[in-house]
């Protein structure tokens, strides 16, 4: 065992309090706000401590900037004085400094404890940040899971760790993906306005799981007073702030918009430099073009590979590989065209940003942020695309397509192979044209229009007009 690695861990243990405060508090000493995931992780640890659950490993994937390190520091701080042994480590730092992976770090920790982890009698909590920095993380964690009974592991990693997980580990660890913030989480953190208990799920059930348009409308109508009560506490100017940068929690700590978008730019550079090389075989020139390709998508989310090939002088195969890597990193959401495999192959995919703040950052740096009113529809589409991805694709309950025909609808949502909904979105008072166009070739159960309108039903066209007040609460 390398003595310098033991000394490093001793230093990390000795400075745990300072490190936790650095990650969980701002420079002004104020505690960073806690996300919904904080409560969920506490529940897992409490169940481990009181032995009501066999879960002893939780992995939190998500792209950089969604607050994973802050979350872990907050949870670790909560339990540091409640259990005998707590360890908080950045795998990324130890890999950079000592080329030491998880297995070697745990061996060094055993040297400090004076016993093997499998022999530990009292509950021990180990927090490992950025596990993807160790190429052998999955094997190491599987081994640790199997040989320990009184140790709980809480780990964070890039979104791609899901793809690199072995089947054996997937059966043992619990995965809790950390997405960008939803609007109610933003309001809870920014203004201490808590969501109405149970309302999100009631809206979700009414919107997506009603028998038909009439039932969806009636179920939503029953929730109208609860929705109105929530919005009576909200400053509606927050919608613009939320769509522009509020999906990323670090925006709360920034003094102004320029600082937010500078941070997003640095974030993208880190994802491109550190994460993309683990997701594909890209040379330096290719990686250097990724930001420009993202800007092209921010401008026109259905740009064809052929157009991008011509513009950037990079082969369409390489560009397709870049998009695949950005999808795996969960920076982009791919929305294929609706239709047969032959039709889909000929049509450009639509790419939306997982966080609308990323699209807005490109507009800001090109001096186009003043066109928010003309761009807000695209930011809303990102927000709704991210919502559908989180609610259906991640749960394995559906697929999202778009109608590539001129004047076609924004989304076709297929739910568990037994329901199909045509969805159109807009910030203004949206009409039914796109829905009508798509209905000519797509057989839907009923149709949804999310927009700034009143709750209405067009029974003949099976269309429910749903105010954005409802959407932002899901």
3D architecture notes:
- The longest helix is centred in the middle third of the chain and has 23 residues, at 257-279.
- Helix 22 (433-439) links the parallel strand 10 and strand 11.
- The N and C termini lie far apart (51 Å).
- The strands form 3 sheets. Strands 8-9-10-11-13-12 form a 6-stranded mixed sheet, sandwiched between helices. Strands 2-3-4-1-5 form a 5-stranded parallel sheet. It has a two-stranded antiparallel sheet with strand order 6-7.
- It has 474 residues and is an alpha/beta fold.
- The protein has helices spanning 3-14, 16-24, 36-49, 68-79, 91-98, 102-113, 137-147, 161-164, 167-172, 183-191, 199-208, 213-222, 224-231, 237-246, 257-279, 284-299, 305-312, 316-328, 341-346, 356-365, 372-393, 433-439, 468-471; strands at 57-61, 85-90, 124-129, 151-157, 174-175, 332-335, 350-353, 398-401, 411-415, 419-425, 446-451, 456-458, 463-467.
- The mean pLDDT is 92.
- The chain has 2 domains: 3-178, P-loop containing nucleotide triphosphate hydrolases (Rossmann fold, 3-Layer(aba) Sandwich), CATH 3.40.50.300; 184-471, no CATH class.
What's a concise summary of this model?
The chain is an alpha/beta fold and 474 residues long. Helices cover 51% and strands 14% of the residues. It is built from 23 helices and 13 strands.
Give the distance, in angstroms, between the N- and C-terminal Cα atoms: 51 Å
Strand runs, count: 13
Shape: globular
Fraction of residues in H or I helices: 40-55%
- Over all CA atoms, what is the radius of gyration? 24 Å
Extract low-pLDDT stretches: none
> What's the multimeric state?
single chain
Class derived from helix and strand content: alpha/beta
The strand line-up of the biggest sheet is 8-9-10-11-13-12
Q: Roughly what is the average pLDDT, rounded to an integer?
A: 92
Number of helices: 23
Percent of residues in β-strands? 5-15%
Task: Compute the number of structural domains.
Answer: 2
Largest sheet: 6 strands, mixed
């Amino acid at each position: 065992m390398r003595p310098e690695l033991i000394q490093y861990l001793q230093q990390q243990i000795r400075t745990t309090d300072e490190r936790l405060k650095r990650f969980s508090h701002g420079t002004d000493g104020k505690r960073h706000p806690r996300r919904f995931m904080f409560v969920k992780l506490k529940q897992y640890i409490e169940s481990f401590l009181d032995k009501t659950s066999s879960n002893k490993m939780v992995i939190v994937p998500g792209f950089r900037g969604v607050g994973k390190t802050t979350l872990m520091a907050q949870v670790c701080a909560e339990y540091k004085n409640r259990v005998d042994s707590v360890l908080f480590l950045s795998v990324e730092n130890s890999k950079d400094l000592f080329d030491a992976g998880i297995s070697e770090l745990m061996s060094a920790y055993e040297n400090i404890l004076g016993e093997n982890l499998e022999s530990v009698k009292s509950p021990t909590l180990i927090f490992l940040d950025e596990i993807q920095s160790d190429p052998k993380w999955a094997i190491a964690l599987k081994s640790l899971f199997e040989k320990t009974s009184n140790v709980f592991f809480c780990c964070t990693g890039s979104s791609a760790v899901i793809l690199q997980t072995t089947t054996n580990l997937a059966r043992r660890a619990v995965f809790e993906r950390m997405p960008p913030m939803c609007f109610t989480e933003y309001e809870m953190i920014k203004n201490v306005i808590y969501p109405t208990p149970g309302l999100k799920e009631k809206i979700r059930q009414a919107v997506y799981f009603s028998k038909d348009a009439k039932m969806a409308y009636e179920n939503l109508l029953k929730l109208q007073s609860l929705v109105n009560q929530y919005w009576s506490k909200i400053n509606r100017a927050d919608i613009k702030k939320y769509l522009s940068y509020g999906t990323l929690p670090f925006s709360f700590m920034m003094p102004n918009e320029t600082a937010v978008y500078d941070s997003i730019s640095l974030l993208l550079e880190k994802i491109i430099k550190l994460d993309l090389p683990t997701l594909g075989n890209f040379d330096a020139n290719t990686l250097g073009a990724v930001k420009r390709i993202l800007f092209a998508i921010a401008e026109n989310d259905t740009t064809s590979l052929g157009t991008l090939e011509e513009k950037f002088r990079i082969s369409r195969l390489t560009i397709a590989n870049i998009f695949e890597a950005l999808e795996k990193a969960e920076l982009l959401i791919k929305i294929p065209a609706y239709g047969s495999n032959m039709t889909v192959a000929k049509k450009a995919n639509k790419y939306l940003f997982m966080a609308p703040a990323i699209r807005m950052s490109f507009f800001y740096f090109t001096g186009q942020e003043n066109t928010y009113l003309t761009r807000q529809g695209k930011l809303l589409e990102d927000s709704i695309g991210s919502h559908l991805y989180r609610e259906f694709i991640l749960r394995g309950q559906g697929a999202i397509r778009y109608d590539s025909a001129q004047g076609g609808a924004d989304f076709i949502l297929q739910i568990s192979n037994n329901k199909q909904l045509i969805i159109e979105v807009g910030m203004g008072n949206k009409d039914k044209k796109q829905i009508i166009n798509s209905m000519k070739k797509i057989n839907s159960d009923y149709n949804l229009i999310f927009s700034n309108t009143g709750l209405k039903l067009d029974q003949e066209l099976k269309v429910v007009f749903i105010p954005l007040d409802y959407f932002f609460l899901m």
